[in-house]
């Protein structure tokens, strides 16, 4: 009976030590003041499921509410609409800078696993990463090329 419980204190110590080490690593990797945490401030008052939607349906119009949030949090901030986080840019220069540097990110659809699997790795037009205009432009150029258009008999 002594042989079964002889290694128990060592295994408990190893378990507690590894758990404390894991928690310390997670704490260090998620520090707020790190250089990698460059997210804009999030507006306060979000509810768990609906986010800030209750603030937008108040007595004031939504654009007035967002303008007052911009006065409080600055020209760029985040808010939650439902479960989705939304970036709000209320200054013209900030919006121009953001959209000029990240134009390819905003022009595409979000990547979805269902679209990748059902669309044969985004090969279908409706499930592709870009909009219909960028997909149909090469198709129109190919179909209207001189070698593909046959004269009628």
TrEMBL record:
Localization per Swiss-Prot or TrEMBL: Membrane
Broad class of where this protein is predominantly found: membrane
InterPro entries: Cyt_P450, Cyt_P450_E_grp-I, Cyt_P450_sf, Plant_Cytochrome_P450_Monoox
Natural source organism: Escallonia rubra
Classification via Pfam families: p450
Gene3D superfamilies cross-referenced by the UniProt entry: Cytochrome P450
UniProtKB keywords: Heme, Iron, Membrane, Metal-binding, Monooxygenase, Oxidoreductase, Transmembrane, Transmembrane helix
Cofactor section: heme
Residues that span the membrane, as ranges: 6-26
GO MF terms held by the record: heme binding; iron ion binding; monooxygenase activity; oxidoreductase activity, acting on paired donors, with incorporation or reduction of molecular oxygen
GO CC term, one of those recorded: membrane
Name recorded for this polypeptide: Uncharacterized protein
Domain of life of the native organism: Eukaryota
């Amino acid at each position: 009976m002594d042989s079964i419980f002889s290694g128990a204190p060592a295994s408990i110590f190893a378990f507690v030590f590894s758990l404390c080490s894991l928690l310390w690593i997670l704490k260090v990797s998620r520090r707020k003041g790190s250089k990698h945490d460059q997210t804009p401030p999030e507006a306060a008052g979000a509810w768990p499921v609906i986010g800030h939607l209750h603030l937008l349906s108040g007595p004031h119009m939504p654009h007035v509410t967002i303008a007052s949030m911009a006065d409080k949090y600055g020209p760029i901030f985040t808010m939650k609409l439902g479960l989705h986080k939304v970036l709000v840019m209320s200054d013209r220069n900030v919006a121009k800078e953001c959209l000029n540097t990240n134009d390819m990110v905003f022009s595409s659809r979000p990547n979805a696993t269902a679209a990748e699997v059902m669309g044969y790795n985004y090969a279908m037009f409706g499930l592709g990463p870009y909009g219909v205009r960028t997909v149909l432009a090469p198709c129109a150029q190919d179909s209207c090329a001189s070698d593909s258009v046959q004269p009628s008999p």
